[in-house]
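Hi F.,

I've been meaning to write this up properly since the lab meeting, where we talked about keeping a consistent format for the predictions we share between groups. The idea is simple: the sequence comes first, exactly as it goes in, then the C-alpha cells exactly as they come out, then a line or two of notes. No screenshots and no reformatting. I'm using this chain as the first example so we have something concrete to point to.
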Amino acid sequence: MRYVRVLLLGALILPSVCMAGSPSKLWGRRGELWKSDSRLPFFGYAGYHCGDKPIPDVKAVCSVLDYGAKANDDIGDSDAIQAAIDKMDSGAVLIPAGRFILDKPITIKKSNVVLRGAGPRKTILYVPCSLQELNPLESNADGGTKLAYSFGGAFLSIEGTRPKERGVAVVEPARRGDTRLQLKSTKGIDRGSWIQLNMKMNEELGRHVHAGCCDAGEGTLGFVCSTVAQVKSVDKKSIKLDRPLRLDVRPEWNPTVGNFEPSIEEVGLENFTIEMAGRPKEPHLLEEGFNAIQMTAAVNCWARRIEIIDADMGIKLDNRSRFCQIERVLIRAEKRKLEDGSTGHHAIWLSGVTQGCLVSDFHIETEYVHDITYEGMAHGNVMRRGKGVRLNFDHHRNAPFENLLTDIDVGNPDRLWDSSGSGHRGPHSAARSTAWNIRHNGDTPAAPKKGHFPQLNMIGIKGVVKSNQDEWHVEPLGGNVSPPDLYEAQLKRRGK
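Output, unedited:
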C-alpha cells in the first residue's frame, strides 16, 4: 500500500538499484561508442513532444457537475461527462472526488481537452457492464472463436483519424542512420515542419525490417511502414531530418514524403481510478471488453496518475499514435483472482505503427496474458522504470522493430519473453528490439524464442546465457550495466 500511495501521488519512483556497473560496448559510459547506424537504436525522441516539453497542467474550465453528473449514486454519469467534453473548446474538465458510473463509453474526438479527476482513489470511475453487454458484437474469425472487444474499444477513448498517406517520391537511396532524403520536389515542405515517410511493405522490405535474418509473414505484407520526423533544413531537392532513419529507404520500395497532419493532439487523461465490475475474466480472446483506455491516431497526448482495476485491457495505443506519454500508472486486480489464471488480456499495448511513445513509472501488480506488448510495426517506443510480479515482454508479430524496455523489475522471470500472435504474421519481433537493465528475482530468466528476435540486444540482464545466434548481442553476462536507464542517457545526449 505504501508503494501504491507513492506511485499515485506522483513522487519519483523506482530508482534503479544499478548505481554502478559495466558500460555496454554499444554505448559506453556517455554514448561515446554509439553511431547512428549502430545495432543499438536511438530512443531519445520518445515521449510527449519527443521529450522536448513537459506535460502541461492545463487550466480547468468546467466541472462535470455543471452538466448533471452526481457522485455516489446509482445513476449513470457518462452522458453528463460526454456533454462537458463536447461543449467546451479547450481546457480541463474536472471530475471531483467521488464515485461516478460509466454506463457508456466516453470518447474525445477533438484536440486540447483534458479529463481530470481529483486523484486516484479520490475520483473513481466505476464500470458496471462490459462493452459486449452495451453493444453486442458477433464473434469474428476462426469460426467465431474470437470476440472483437478482446482487441480494442475502451470506456475512455482518445479517437483521431489516420493521416492520409500521400506525398512526393524519394528519388535516391538512403541508408539506415542517414538524416538526408533526396526528393522529387520539396515544394510545400518548410524548415521546422513535420513530415511522414511511407513505404509499403513487400517481401524485400519485409526482410530488411528483419535485418536480413528472416522474412516478414504473409500477414504483414501490404502494411504501410510509416514514420514521422521534423525537418531541420530544406533545399530544392532534399530535406535534412532531426533524427536518423531507422531503415534503409530505396526508390524501388516506392517511398513518399508528405506533410504530417495529425487529427487530434494535446488530449490528456489524469488523476483518477477506473474500476471495472470485477466479474471473472472470460477465456482468452473471448474477453467482453472491460477495457479502460485507448488512444487511436493520437499525437502528443497523455495519460498520467491513473489506477486501473480488474480490466481486460489496461491501456492501448494504436493506429499511428505518435509521441504520446503514459506515466505513473498502476494496474491491479481486486476481485479477479490470480489462482483462476491471468486476470486480464493486455495490460499495456502499443500497436498499429505506433511511434515514439513513452510509458514510464508503471506497476502491473497482477498477471495478464500479455503484460506489455509491442506489435504491428510499432517502432521507437520506450517502456521504462516499471515493475511487475511476473512480467512478460510480449512481441506480438507484424514486425515491431527498434523498441526499448529499460530499467524494469519483472519479478519472477520465468515467462519473460513469452510472446504470441498468429503465425502467418511472421516472427514475434523485427530487428533490434532492446532490453536494458532488466532486473528479476530468479536465477535464469526465460530465453527468447530463437529465430524470432533478429538482432536482439539484451544488455544487463542477470543470468542470460550468450546465444549461439550470432545476431543476438548479450552483455554484460552478470547484469549490472551503466547507465541504468538507456532512454534517460540518450535524452541527455540530445541535451534535453
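Notes:
Confidence is low (pLDDT under 50) at residues 1-6, 11-19.
Residues 168-259 form one domain.

If this format works for you, I'll send the rest the same way.

G.
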